[in-house]
Specification:
Helix content is 50%, strand content 0%. Helix 2 packs across helix 6 and helix 4 crosses helix 5. The protein is globular. It is built from six helices and no strands. The model has no long low-confidence stretch (mean pLDDT 79).
């Protein structure tokens, strides 16, 4: 017998909590969930702080210059699509910053 699935929209106040706790229906895969939903771009500084690394280390792990990261954090430069997607992924799974 199959379990009944509850569908939750990204606009639901519980969505982010469920996502962070890996309780999302889509195979418990937060990355797939991010790809299938439209969410506002996370604040890059808050995402970096969530990973627990310095600006220099965050920039090095993203293969960008420290100056670019500083511009992004100050909102002086707009992020492109792939960078935005990476931020969504790191926001959901900050430990991925440490995977080589």
């Amino acid at each position: 017998m199959r379990n009944k699935l509850n569908i939750i929209k990204a606009s639901d106040p519980r969505f982010n909590e469920l996502l962070e706790n890996n309780q999302v229906i889509l195979g418990n895969n937060p990355i797939e969930t991010i790809l299938r939903t439209r969410q506002p771009t996370p604040n890059i500084k808050l995402v970096r702080e969530k990973t627990g690394v310095t600006q220099a280390e965050f920039a090095a792990r993203l293969f960008i210059s420290l100056k670019t990261l500083e511009k992004w954090e100050k909102g002086k430069c707009q992020l492109n699509g792939p960078t935005t997607m990476l931020l969504h992924i790191l926001n959901a799974k900050p430990e991925l910053i440490f995977i080589n």
